[in-house]
Design a protein that fits this description.
Keywords: Oxidoreductase. By secondary structure, the protein is of the alpha/beta class. It is built from 14 helices and 16 strands. Helices cover 40% and strands 18% of the residues.
Length: 453
């Protein structure tokens, strides 16, 4: 599919908008609940498709199915709230009847659907990042056009088929697939077509910046969840076993291919040896292989290009005096897409693997001695999505979390994403928030109405 197909999908979404936004929140809620139920009923097939497309272990795919449906369930409930589409607030009027202190008129702030929304999703979470966008959009009364990653289109098509079965009308959840060489023209149509009122994108920071530029002529609403490069700080008073478990959960899920993965490990000098030793023991136990094989804990990277990029970054770090404690190389005996779980110490904060999101199973370690030094290392990046730190000092918890320049902070925990929590970054990691009760606001406009009655 290309620009013409994208334009046609946008027009179908526009045609469907008046009827869909005019339905009750209760009606939309019922459809979202049915969609969620159908995904759950077909979870085995969907998880299998996801694993075969993306490579992630089957158990992770099952976990994502559950996580993805949780957004549909959540926004099915949000659709009927008083602050959803058609709801709003009644504001006390400051105006008075002439010659009197009696109030004059009524002020209403009414929430309405934004309109046609373009949703662009990546390959690393091919279900959850669709439902996290489509759930609130449909709950708010918007119609949508989805462009999934060219690497995981089958998962998206399966979701669309089940949406239709659940009763989502034609035009409400359109889908456009495109090969890598066609992505640009589809994205250009999304950005320049005046029918599209909002774009929600999860992906790289450079592409997010391009979408912003292309959308500026039509002044679209934007939700952008962009690149990470999360710091993981371990203070000298931390519970090291807890810190190691948190690091394992954060770093190696989906082979390190998540935007909130810990990338930069900033460890207090006095506990570095213990932390690295215990982490190494855990890393050596990771079973790498095909995602469909029983017992596999980590699958492949998404492409051979990703493997080559990671290998170059590791080699560059080693050339700058980093030490490889474990791993460090592609696992060519398994195939062209596999890379060893890796730990590097003495990593220079100027090396590529430190400065750029590595999107792979590589732990890059450096040390610090003071809290100020740790904070400076953590914040020394243009990204600001997630961060993690481990300490048992409650005063430090409050002080340090307030000073970190990130939209999401995990304290003594490595898995922090949740349906009920607002997800998003600061600095060049994006705009807006997804998930939680604030997520639906991204798909609503507020109209001020004054009634002189």
């Amino acid at each position: 599919m290309g620009r013409d197909e994208a334009k046609a999908a946008i027009e179908r979404a526009s045609d469907a908008l008046p009827d869909w936004k005019d339905t009750t929140g209760l009606h939309r809620s019922g459809i979202l609940s049915k969609w969620s139920a159908l995904i759950k009923e077909n979870s085995e097939d969907i998880a299998t498709i996801m694993t075969l497309e993306s490579g992630k272990p089957l158990q992770e795919s099952h976990g994502e199915v559950a996580y993805g449906t949780s957004f549909l369930d959540y926004y099915a409930a949000e659709a009927i709230r008083s602050n959803s589409a058609g709801g709003g607030t009644l504001i006390p009027t400051p105006f008075t009847v002439a010659g009197s202190t009696s109030p004059r008129g009524k002020i209403m702030a009414v929430n309405e659907a934004v309109g046609v929304c373009a949703l662009i999703t990546p390959w690393n979470f091919p279900i959850a990042l669709i439902t996290r966008k489509a759930g609130p959009a449909l709950a708010a009364g918007c119609t949508t056009v989805l462009k999934p990653s060219e690497l995981t289109p089958l998962t998206a098509l399966a979701l669309q088929n089940l949406a239709t079965e659940a009763g989502v009308p034609e035009g409400v959840f359109e889908l456009v697939t495109a090969d890598a060489d066609i992505n640009r023209e589809v994205g250009d149509e999304f950005c320049t077509n005046p029918i599209v009122k909002k774009i929600s994108f999860t992906g790289s920071t450079p592409v997010g910046k391009l979408l912003m530029k292309l959308s500026s002529d039509t002044v679209k609403r934007m939700s952008l969840e962009l690149g990470g490069n999360a710091p993981f700080i371990v203070f000298k008073d931390a519970d090291i076993d807890l810190a190691v478990n948190a690091a394992m959960a954060s770093k190696f899920r989906n082979a390190g291919q998540t935007c909130v993965c810990a990338d930069r490990f900033i460890i207090h000098k006095s506990v570095e040896e213990e932390f690295v030793e215990k982490l190494t023991d855990k890393v050596k136990q990771i079973t790498v292989g095909h995602g469909m094989k029983e017992g596999v804990a980590m699958g492949p990277l998404i492409s051979s290009k990703a493997v080559q990029k990671l290998k170059e970054e590791v080699d560059e770090a080693l050339a700058e005096n980093a030490k490889c404690v474990v791993g460090g190389s592609p696992l060519t005996d398994l195939g062209p897409h596999f890379f060893e779980p890796t730990i590097l110490t003495n990593v220079s904060p100027k090396s590529i693997i430190w400065c750029a999101e590595n999107f792979g199973p590589v732990v890059a370690v450096t040390t610090f001695e003071t809290e100020d030094e740790a904070l400076a290392l953590a914040n020394d990046t243009t990204s600001g999505l997630a961060s993690y730190f481990c300490t048992q000092d409650m005063a430090r918890v409050l002080r340090f979390s307030a000073s970190l320049q990130n939209g999401i902070v995990g304290v003594n925990e490595g898995i922090i994403s949740s349906t009920v929590a607002p997800f998003g970054g600061v600095k060049e990691s994006g705009l807006g928030r997804e998930g939680s009760s604030v997520g639906i606001n991204e798909y609503l406009e507020t109209k001020y109405v004054f009634l002189n009655v």
